[in-house]
Amino acid sequence: MKKTNLYNDNHPMLDMKTGEQVIKYGQEPKPQPLVSELWAIRGHCDELRAQKISKRANLPLQWFDKIPSLNRTKGIEKLRAERGVLLLRNRTSAFIDQFQHPIGRCSKFYKLTAYNNCNFWCEYCYLYLTFRNMPISTHFVNYDKMFREIISFDKANIPDMLRVLNLGELCDPLAVEDITGFAEELIPFAAQETYKTKLLFLTKSDNVDSLLNIEHGGRSIMSFSINTDKVYQQLEHRTASPEARLIAAKKLQQAGYEIRLRIDPVILYSTWKKDYIDLVEKIFVFVKPERITIGEYRPSKGLASHISSRFPYSPLLKINSGLVNDGPKLRYPEEHRLAMFRVIVDAIKKHDKKIKIALCKEDVKIWKNLDMQINGLQCNCLG
Ligand code: SF4
What we know:
The protein is an alpha/beta fold.
């Protein structure tokens, strides 16, 4: 299989400002803030909490009777309309529920949904498909209900391995922490009010300074999703750079938090091998993670049209055409997965032979071929 180049100098790139011109993200004259509007729904939003967030963010609250429908824009305008806004509302369904993988390739871990969707603009984000009917980034502000559910969860009879609440399944829980102050409130709550539960924050943000001096009691795990500079520059728009994420991880590790990393999604392109080896080298310059979980690019079959309506020139569209069917997902053919995992696992083991390494939602055949133990799974989302 030929390795697809990511965007290169001869390939049209999406201008993050106009959606038309061909310049690289980060070179636009004036980068837009991640969130430029705060919305709230009258009668369905804890008003005091919304006012507090508005004050912290220094953004006026715009009140609506119902969620405004988005006009049918494409490209950058579509992204701005969906992800330049943060909608504040109460959550009516449960904050905590159990994840169920469609073909049983993962443990039934528990997730805590404090946000739906994300304000970052990763081109491969599966949430474009998940939230296709309500694509506006949303933060649920009725924390009282969430706190009650966490206390009940803490008292419930649940195996130790599943006593972790994953906050990063349907959002990036730290992307807008500077605006909401959510983690700054939740982390000390877990430290003071729970005995067995841990929180797992999975992020591509470096929004952590407000979390360094709060009481965490070892009950919050910080996990950073990390990738090569090329994948970051060309596909992970508006996130913190890989180095900024590693610096944030280092600060959190020094503050006593457990640090985990995900190298995910691994993408094959012309210089992938050298770039992923360099990435592993760089990781160990900054942190000593407890676990590293690796996952390859594995889009759902319906994701491509959602990518193309936002990123019409995305190289992922070409990559998708070389992938193979695997249940509801597309994946690289097995021999390519084996090659990419082998290179990364070997690079990690050169630094730390004892570190826990796992593959995310991968076929048992691939684990076996790599001589990796799938029993007693110690991957990102488990305790
Ligand atoms: S950080 Fe995660 S949730 Fe946010 S846009 Fe990127 S892939 Fe999606």
